[in-house]
Amino acid sequence: MTRPPMADLERIYRSLRLIRRAEEEVARVYPSDKIKSPVHLSIGQESIAVGVCDALRHDDIVSGTYRGHAAYLAKGAPLDRMMAELYGKDTGCARGKGGSMHLVDMAQGVLGASAVVGTTIPLAAGFALALKREGKGRVAVSFFGDGATEEGVFAESLNFAALHRLPLLFVCENNGYAIHEPTAKRWATNRLVERAASYGMPAEAVNDGDVLALRALVIRLVEGMRAGTGPAFVEAKTYRWREHVGPNEDFEAGYRGRRDLEAWQATDQVVRIGGMIAPARRAAIDAAIETEIAAALQFAENSPVPDPAQLTTDTYA
Amino acid sequence: MPDAAPRALSYVDALREAAAQEMERDPRVFVMGLDVDDHKGIQGSTKGLVDRFGPERVFTTPLSEDAMTGVAIGAAQAGLRPIHVHIRMDFLMLCMNQLVNIAAKSRYMYGGQVKVPMVVRAMIGKSWGQGAQHSQGLHAMFMHVPGIKVLAPSNAHDAKGCLIAAIRDDNPVLMVEHRLLYPLIAEVPEAPYAARLGEARVLRKGTDITLLGISAMVPECLRAAELLREIGIDAEVIDPISLVPFDRAALAASVRKTGRLLAVDSAWTMCGASAEVAAMAAEDAPGVRIARLGFAPTTCPTAPSLEHAFYPNPAVIAARAHVLVRPDAKTWRPSPEAERSVTGLNFKGPF
Ligand SMILES: Cc1ncc(C[n+]2csc(CCOP(=O)(O)OP(=O)(O)O)c2C)c(N)n1
Ligand SMILES: [Mg+2]
Predict the structure, then answer these.
(1) Model confidence, pTM
(2) In Å, how far are A235, A237, B60 from A191, measured between CA atoms?
């Protein structure tokens, strides 16, 4: 695979690094109790959101999960409004009413996330149905975890999307676990790609977290989708570095070993792509990211909390 | 249990002990549900069961609540006694078809040929930004449907008795468990005992008003009663424990005595358990003054400033009770100091 031009690499690095550092800051702030929201960090999994979103147009649509900071940021939604949401502030992307599990930014094409696993997969299909009717070549992407593939709606949505040739890319972020339960205790076979393919759509896996390989694959698949060939499926293997929910590591719990973490850290895409960029350029990008994060935290700290009168607003449209 | 020595146990430990004792007694009893066998063991309520009873009787499932509910129903009809565990009640919405259309109706629509002795345990979450989909009290949806029993114990003693009764019952039984009750400690006899379903408990005797709390609102009502005592209002506090079947007689006896009822639920009021309680009181004791409290009529927000206003608390309950008892007095709120002295259930995250 040929290496993308430097401008692309810098953009990809910037996105990877922003997500990594922003979530590290969330974890750092967390013990202060300023964030009163369960946080499901994507640290270690950033390359999927970034590899996919960098292959999209700005007017495409993505749908993420409660582990959604990465998809939200990779699609270009603003960090300060995410931080404010975690802080329960009025300036948050959901006005302090959704929290970390329900990030949303319709203007940036980030559909609202759900804390009920799998429930947003058919919603992305609904958006894809509308995009198909619109006929401008836009596509939708549905991100979900390996656990979500066990829900009935996963199978039902694959079938419907294939039946209607919807411009929908299914992206399974397979980190090997649903909370603490490994796929071996939940799946009779690992042949997820085959399962998806049997509905009648291209289906491929990226097994090593390679952000550039994933991006190249998505560029290829999405090209066809824009032309009306119908949905496609990607299984992106990855690894969650922190606990399922919360800011810490959890290797002492015994359900998985630190060895696995070390293997994934050895191919960390933030480090890898950073290494492709000249040190001075990289330092400038890093510095800009730190400034952005500091400003976002300031924004969250300084923003007002929602007025109690807002308790019932938006219950109905 | 006159022969059992007093012993303090938390709600969560009482649940686990009940399951273990019943599994010991009856090999047909088994536990299934997402994460029941991991190191956290559903906040501890199933912890260690897999080590004791093995993975055939204690197992996690795929994330497939709809199908897994059907599996539990089928296994129950086949003669086993499943306990299907959900870490949030919100996830029961994926089980609705199986529970409402099959579990509740099989006995009747198959002419008595089958029974469905299954338990569904479901937890209501609160605080720490649990938010829209991890905080709902949806028990009224199940109360609505004949064929399912609904239990909502509020203390460790009743948690054990209810779970044992649920396991031994030949019907589908929903256990409503509020997360904030889990650490609360009560006296719990060690020997197994089954609660008598449909028997309420008067937790505090009083003459001026009946406070009926549901689940986590029981301790909040007890705290409200303390606040009311300071202004000379003597509140009776009732815990129905079992919502279906419901102890109508106990409710009627109490409201006939006090003439006033405030029903407080860990859920919305619209078509909720509190609405049903109010209706029963109105039918059985005409003339009684009635009010209800529950979640604010909106989606649960995550921002603490809004979340605080979403839930009833002892001060709000006491203030509402005061209006019922002394409608002509000027409005009263407990003093901030008094309020703090009985601060309601609190939780420090993360989950
Ligand atoms: C329908 C439903 N069932 C159970 C849960 C509890 N739960 C929250 S996250 C999770 C694991 C999901 O695993 P996966 O889809 O692989 O996503 P990951 O967390 O690994 O990113 C579970 C079981 C839930 N939120 N929704
Ligand atoms: Mg997973």
Answers:
(1) 0.96
(2) 10, 13, 21
pLDDT tens digits for B191-244?
999 999 999 999 999 999 999 999 999 999 999 999 999 999 999 999 999 999
Q: Which residues, 6+ apart, have CB-to-CB distance to A98 below 8 Å?
A: A85, A92, A104, A112, B131, B132, B302
Yes or no: domain B201-343 corresponds to CATH 3.40.50.920: yes
CB B147 within 8 Å of CB B171:
yes
Please answer whether residues B202 and B247 qualify as being in contact, where contact means their C-beta atoms are separated by less than 8 angstroms: no
Instruction: Sort out which chain B residues have CB atoms less than 8 A from A101's CB and list them.
Output: 131, 133-134
For residue B347, the tally of other CB atoms under 10 A from its CB is 15
Buried b / exposed e across B80-89, counting CB within 10 Å, b at 16+?
A: bbbbbbbbbb
Per-domain boundaries in chain A: 6-301
Q: CATH class for domain B9-188?
A: alpha beta
Report DSSP letters for B93-135, one per residue.
GGTHIIIIIIITTHHHHTTTS-----EEEEEE--STT--TTS-
**Residue B205: C-alpha distances to residues A205, B286, B313, B320 (Å):** 66, 21, 21, 19
Give tens-digit pLDDT for B37-91. 999 999 999 999 999 999 999 999 999 999 999 999 999 999 999 999 999 999 9
Query: A119 - beta bridge partners?
Result: none
Query: How many A/B residue pairs have CB atoms within 8 Å?
Result: 133
Measure CA of the first residue to CA of the last residue in chain A; give whole Å. Answer: 49
Using a 6 Å cutoff on CB, does residue A68 contact ligand 1?
Answer: no
CA distance A244 to B66: 23
**Fold of the domain built from segment(s) A6-301:** Rossmann fold (3.40.50)
Helix (H) or strand (E) holding A204: strand A203-206
A156 Cβ under 8 Å from any chain B Cβ: no
Report the complex ipTM: 0.95
Could you state, in order of their start, the residue ranges of all structural domains in chain B?
9-188, 201-343
Calculate helix-pair angle for A211-226, A46-53, nearest 10 degrees.
40
By Cβ distance, the residue of B129, B132, B303 closest to A38 is B129
Domains B9-188 and B201-343 share a fold: yes
Task: Look at the block and give the residue holding tokens 């686990």.
Answer: B16
